[in-house]
Amino acid sequence: MAKFAANTEVSAEKSRSEIERTLSRYGATAFMYGWEGSRAVIGFRAHNRMLRFVLPMPDKKAREFTHTRHENEWSQRELSQAESEKRYEQAIRQRWRALALAIKAKLEAVDAGITEFESEFLAQIVLPNGQTMADHSKPLIERAYESGEMPLLLPHLQ
Questions:
Q1: Which pLDDT score, from 0 to 100, does residue 61 have?
Q2: What pLDDT does 6 receive?
Q3: Angle between helices 12-25 and 81-111 (to 10 degrees)
């Protein structure tokens, strides 16, 4: 399946700037961007909530950037350093465009009354302990499916 914006020429910097402008237009009151190793982070405050999106970056050494592909198989032929870098930078641009689209679509759905802010951004809401709701709830969901039992709603009262 084709990836959204697979051939985009929009730089990662322009996409980040677009995300910031979009957030501001929809009422965000704070914005931050940073990166560490193989991930970038967008954080913002909106609707009295702190939110965080972590954007994983591709591995520069992955075969999709270092080798040619022929009929769904990677060949043994290595690409030049310049071609490898070109493919890697394209993948980064694609990811930033996809994040810009996702954030804009979520905000527009909220603005149009299709969904509520907390419902649309639930996974990215940052809790007081620094975890996102996704970080907090994924292990609970996994245990519930493994055991077939629902987690206690108020475990400290049991």
A1: 86
A2: 83
A3: 10
The model's pTM: 0.86
Spatial contact of 125 and 44, defined as CB atoms under 8 Å apart:
no
113 forms bridges with which residues in the sheet?
none
Distance CA 83, CA 114 (A): 43
Q: What is the DSSP letter of 37?
A: T
Q: Of 125, 104, 105, which Cα lies nearest the Cα of 47?
A: 125
Q: Which residues of 38-58 are buried (b: 16+ CB within 10 A; e: fewer)?
A: eebebbbbbeeebbbbebebb
Task: Give, in degrees to the nearest 5, the angle at Cα 88 between 36 and 24.
Answer: 55
How high is the pLDDT of residue 5? 84
pLDDT, position 105: 98
In the chain, which residues have pLDDT < 50? none
Whole-angstrom Cα distance, residue 144 to residue 147?
5
The answer to whether the CB of 26 falls within 8 A of the CB of 47 is no
The candidate with the shortest Cα–Cα distance to 3, out of 74, 124, 78, 93, is: 93
Looking at residue 1, its amino acid is M
Structure confidence at residue 23 (pLDDT): 98
